[in-house]
Amino acid sequence: MELKNKKLLQTGIFIDNKFTKSTDNSTFKVNNPANGKLVCTVANATEIDTNKAIHSAETAFKKWSTTNVLERSKILKKWYQLIIDNKDDLALLLTTEQGKPLNEALGEINYGASFVEWYAEECRRTYGETIPFSNNSKRLKTIQQPIGVVAAITPWNFPTAMITRKVAPAIAAGCTVVLKPAEDTPLSALALAQLALEAGLPKGVLSILPTTNYKDIGRILTTHPSIAKVSFTGSTTVGKLLMQQSASTLKKLSLELGGNAPCIIFDDAELDNAVKGAIATKYRNAGQTCVCANRILVQKSIYPTFLKKYTEAVEKLKVGNGIKKNSTIGPLINQEAIDKIKNLLTDALENGAKITLGGNQHKAGKLFFEPTIITNCTNEMQLSKEEIFGPVSSIFIFETEEEAIAMANDTEYGLAAYFFSENVNRVIRVSEKLEYGIIGINEGIISTAEAPFGGIKQSGFGKEGSFYGIEEYQITKYICIGNL
Fold first, then answer.
1. Boundaries of each Aldehyde dehydrogenase domain copy (predicted)?
2. Is residue 285 a contact partner of residue 104, using CB atoms and an 8 Å limit?
3. Residue 453: inside a domain
4. Contact status, residue 115 vs residue 165, Cβ threshold 8 Å
5. Which among 123, 290, 292, 377 is annotated as catalytic?
């Protein structure tokens, strides 16, 4: 890995604007999932380091929370520009530790930077209200203020964008942040910290705790009385645990958890666009996103035609090391991910499903899996109930609109859903009946900095992106002025 900007490869804990060793000098390895080779070793944060970071954030909050919005905006804009200026290096770093194709990684860097740019402007629009009064001797108003120190816990599948989606609005609101990135992908987080340092972010406003001690560190972040807010992206199981722990100090929470996204192809869909959209939402990042289409529901009358077109498109996907320019499917993150896919496929086959394409590990390496299509799927199979998180398309058949909606909603999750139809009446009906926080219609890529991202039901609560995203890091203070 040859970076033009050597400073972006940082391996220390980031506290008080310094990269340091852990208090016990322990480290852990970061490996390239494409070939298993060691990338580097990184400082392994301890409980003592965590408490130091929280104290630093608490101290910095007193000043940062009163810094005027123009100053916050100026720093965020500079951070954004530095990310863009270094996007090629950041993408290479991301691909090396996470595995996604370089072109996808570059897309993530641009996407992640867009949140920094958005909140550099949005911090200037966090308005309060003047409330009409019923008593002439009183005046009523509200103001928005930063909530305090924020703990952010981010996943490995989008190691840049999941950070900026949390950190940028928190900093813009006037909060300070202690971030624990995923242990598989700490380098992207540390590179962002280096650029934030160069942008002029004051010490203590952002701390980064790379660690394999995620249970102990997570417990501290969710129970420490100085932390006012926890933002987590990850599994529903872990989210529930963090919520239980946070209850001890009544922290404000944002939880972006698991998904089970349906992608419905109606008989009035424009099929070529439906195929393109379904491919985009299913196979992006080798199927390792929380909003990937987990179940593709196809109306019976168009099923043969759709399956033929879809199969032809999937066959064109190129599996390989993400560094190679022609690769479109990179490796899965670890062996556990491979084992999960195998178990889900075995269960499906035992219950009557049929593999029509792929179904095996790919010759590119032990963490690569063939783009796969499995048909004759039913709701009794495990892959209909939990995230596949891999390059496997499970195809279901339905006959009526009502049946499709019932099948789509038959899950405890409610993050994202997609459907394809050219009928405007159906578009309105179905979008209102689907029990999901995000709906994509005739489109497979739906997330953007300007729009709110978040789920319902077991997929969590809270929003990231848009003006809702900065509200997650603020309190609304009501002020009553009397005896006028």
1. 20-478
2. yes
3. no
4. yes
5. 290
Structure tokens, 199: 């942008």
Beta carbons within 8 Å of 403's beta carbon, 6+ residues apart? none
For residue 226, is it within any domain?
Answer: yes
Residue with tokens 């990338």: 39
> Is-catalytic flag, 377?
no
**Burial grade of 37 (CB within 10 A; 0-12, 13-18, 19 or more):** exposed
Q: Is the pTM of this model over 0.85?
A: yes
C-alpha gyration radius of the chain: 23
Q: Quick one: 312 and 175 in the same domain?
A: no
Asked if residue 106 is part of any domain, the answer here is yes
Structure tokens at 92: 């290479």
Catalytic residue check, 123: no
Q: Are residues 241 and 269 in the same domain?
A: no
| 438 and 469 part of one domain | no
Q: Which of 58, 256, 370, 387 is catalytic?
A: 256
pLDDT digits (tens, 9 = 90+) for 213-239: 999 999 999 999 999 999 999 999 999
Interacting residues of 12 by C-beta distance below 8 A, sequence separation 6+:
18, 19, 20, 21, 42, 43, 190
Q: Do 305 and 206 have their domain in common?
A: no
